[in-house]
Please model this.
Amino acid sequence: MQNVAEKTTLHLNATARRGLHAPLHRRYPVMSSIDFAPDTPPVDDGRRRLLVVASSAMTAIGLAAVTIPFIRSMGPSQKAKTAGASVKVDFSKLEIGQQITLEWRGKPVWILRRSEEMLRLMEAPQHRQRLRDPDSAELAQQPDYARNATRSINAEYFVVIGICTHLGCVPNFRPEVAPEDLGPEWVGGYFCPCHGSRFDLAGRVYSGVPAPTNLVVPPYHFHTTTVIEIGIDYEDAMQGGKG
Ligand code: FES
Model:
């Protein structure tokens, strides 16, 4: 495929979800090689876990996962990355309910493939009324094209920067419905254990938690039907990549 720089395979790290309080450089160690781990045990309780994909061939990110799709990441050169270049990710093997994490400008960016059930629960009136900004009215938290209830271009694919808008921790991905520790009203989302902030699977913040705003959606577009480019809007990409 044109512009494909490298193929990156995934390395599963069962401790990733436990390490989310650590500084970013500790949570996402740079690895000198990237392994494929086909024998990872299957999930035991149906929970979907975090998949992590590197943004270049020499960079990998810790992760935990249920299954192991092969996901290609097409990273820019180190020089371009330092300058804040965009990052392309082939998401064609991402399964419904799975999430991958990649690195863009030193920040974790999540891509979640949402199920119809996830979307249905997110839009339930009783859920919306628990949210501070259910329709993404706050401009600064997302580009215009993601200023909607699902906070996305395509509702099935959610792209968001995985940093809590309170004090910058990385929330946990908790897609389960009504788990014991989060309560019966939990419809899946992101929980920040630092101070208890809650976000749903559109990154919309709950009312009454420390985080003041929804999670930030970065500029992005669908480069092809199977590739998302993070860091640049479609219009800018068409004009030669000003992002
Ligand atoms: S940093 Fe997330 S709740 Fe404080």
